[in-house]
Write a structure and sequence with these properties.
Elements (H helix, E strand, L loop, with lengths): L8 H15 L11 E5 L6 E6 L3 H17 L6 H17 L1 H12 L3 H21 L7 E2 L6 E9 L2 E5 L7 H12 L3 E5 L5 H18 L6 E3 L4 H9 L3 E7 L2 H13 L3 E5 L4 E5 L5 H13 L9 E7 L3 H15 L19 H16 L3 E4 L3 E2 L9 E2 L2 E4 L5 H4 L6 E7 L2 H9 L3 E2 L1 E5 L3 H8 L8 E4 L11 E2 L2 E2 L6 E2 L8 E9 L14
Parallel strand pairs: 5-6, 5-8, 6-7, 8-9, 10-11, 10-18, 11-16, 15-16, 18-19
Antiparallel strand pairs: 1-2, 3-4, 4-23, 12-15, 13-14, 17-21, 20-22
The structure holds 2-aminohexanedioic acid.
2-aminohexanedioic acid (UN1) binds next to loops.
Length: 515
């Protein structure tokens, strides 16, 4: 291993247990019922068995959350609901290291990114607490004398939150903190790869609920695979399904929820690109691209996957990025190690996908400029550490249009900005995008309606690492949903339009006369 030996799995087991106990997680470590397992990509070994839910126990969780909604939570004043999220924020500050440990152990994130992910939870707690006093409805002038026209926002019901392994805590918190202040209750189905992390979060939320006197069933966690998630998709009492994952998963979920007239909010695949114009500050390009493309071992939905560079600067950009990747190679390894920048892929599937994509890219005329190899540690054959790769491509072939959840950065070149935007938008996904330029007109064109078609459009920063204050999500195959900040909360509530007549007469709208 370039970065020293890997830790012993038994050390990770102890570390996970300690973190779980400190967070107040229950039903560990004695598993009953259908067995599952917790595993770490650091060594590729199992940690210990975990109790998975069955469809029947998931139904029971929905019933409990539904009862908490109707009996208490929807009628609890919103600022009061905010106290629960406020307390959660305090506990997260206290247990930042514990949760970060669980994130590193189960998702393989390096320390700084794991801590950053917990910070993202703390930030959304602060946001949601403020929001609990700002669930504003509008008033509009009525066309009728003696009438008032307004809208009010009401809680929706149970929100089913389905999350992916790569942001096992932050994406849950975006949904849950906002849903809770909106008056909804939550049933969470985390990725089956990150059950422990979910139990840690649930433990903290239950402690917060006990501390502020909120009903425990405002939140339930159900562990397991697709059959458990399927309950949230099919169950009519789940008013909103908020699902993060692959486009294939979204395509399966959306029609089922729509068929029962439920609501869904999807955050699916990305295939994010940055356009580099001749005026770009190349120091920003290199730093911004390397973090966005190789950070989290290329396993963010916002990961930079395509660099679209003007032909005048493409050789220079390649040289500098390759140089930076050369140094990165020496910093692949144990994510707990302070000097590591690239931890493991979550599993073999990611590694297979990376190998397959590199092979197809080569067949399409691509040239691997750096990286792409696997780092093998004898005792850890089930752990998948890879060197982030940069591939110069002659054109945007099929493989470049797909999202491969691994650290591969394709470099393409262009001549005119129109051509760059066409390449940029010429993929099925539409999550995040960036332009590096010092020319304001170029930046504005990229930001305009005829520019990037993504939900996130940045200037002079990479595609990943969004702040919680903005709405997060994207277009096309990314699914169209928006989570986190801005007015995303509206997806978690229902709107009622109210007309109040205080005038004593009954004039009809549009001047209609009747009786
Ligand atoms: C994801 O990868 O699903 O913008 C979420 C980012 C993070 C969130 C990513 N704040 O990269």
């Amino acid at each position: 291993m370039p970065n020293g030996a890997l830790p012993d799995t038994r050390v990770l087991v102890d570390r996970a247990r300690t973190a779980l106990e400190r967070c107040g997680a229950t039903h560990l470590p004695e598993p009953v019922g259908a067995p599952g397992r917790a595993r770490t990509p650091i060594t590729g070994q199992d940690l210990f068995p975990v109790e998975f839910d069955t469809p029947a126990s998931a139904e029971e969780a929905v019933s409990a959350a539904s009862h908490a909604f109707t009996s208490t939570w929807r009628d609890t004043p919103a600022p009061e609901r905010g106290r629960l999220v406020h307390r959660l924020g305090e506990l997260l500050r206290e247990h930042k290291e514990d949760l970060a440990d669980l994130v590193t152990i189960e998702a393989g994130k390096i320390r700084s990114e794991a801590l950053g992910e917990v910070q993202e939870m703390i930030d959304i707690c602060d946001f949601a607490v403020g929001l609990s006093r700002q669930l504003y409805g509008r008033t509009m002038p009525s066309e009728r004398p003696g009438h008032r026209l307004m809208e009010t926002w009401h809680p929706l019901g149970v929100v089913g939150v389905i999350t992916a392994f790569n942001f096992p805590v932050a994406v849950w918190s975006w949904n849950t903190c906002v849903a809770l202040v909106c008056g909804d209750t939550v049933v969470w189905k985390p990725s089956e790869l990150t059950s422990l992390t979910a139990l840690g979060c649930h433990g903290l939320l239950m402690r917060a609920a006990a501390d502020v006197g909120a009903p425990a069933d405002v939140h339930r966690v159900v562990l397991g695979g697709a059959e458990v998630g399927g309950v949230l998709v099919d169950e009519a009492r789940v008013a909103l399904v908020s699902a993060t994952g692959s486009t294939a998963m979204g395509r399966a979920v959306a029609p089922k929820v729509a068929a029962r007239m439920g609501r869904y909010l999807l955050e699916l695949g990305g295939n994010n690109a940055a356009v580099v114009t001749p005026s770009a500050d190349l120091n920003l390009v290199v730093r911004g691209s390397v973090f966005a493309a190789a950070g989290t071992a290329g396993q963010r939905c916002t990961t930079l996957r395509r660099l679209i560079v003007h032909e005048d600067v493409v050789d220079q950009v390649c040289e500098r990025v390759v140089d930076a990747y050369g140094r990165l190679k020496e910093r692949v390894g144990d994510p707990f190690e302070g000097s590591t920048l690239v931890g493991p892929l979550v599993g073999e599937r990611g590694h297979e996908a990376m190998r397959g994509a590199l092979e197809r890219a080569r067949a399409d005329g691509g040239q691997v400029l750096v990286g792409g190899g696997r780092r093998l540690e004898k005792e850890a054959e089930e752990a998948f550490y890879v060197e982030p790769a940069v591939v110069r491509m002659p054109s945007q072939s099929e493989v470049v249009q797909e999202e491969t959840f691994a650290p591969i950065l394709y470099v393409l070149s262009y001549r005119t900005l129109e051509e760059a935007v066409e390449l940029h938008n010429g993929v099925p996904q539409g999550l995040s995008s960036a332009i590096f330029t010092q020319d304001q007109a170029e930046a504005e064109r990229f930001l305009s309606a005829a520019g990037s078609d993504c939900g996130i459009v940045n200037v002079n920063i990479g595609t990943s690492g969004a702040e919680i204050g903005g709405a997060f999500g994207g277009e096309k195959d990314t699914g169209g949903g928006r989570e986190s900040g801005s007015d995303s909360w509206k997806a978690y509530m229902r709107r009622a339009t109210n007309t109040v007549n205080y005038g004593g007469e009954l004039p009809l709208a549009q001047g209609v006369e009747f009786l």
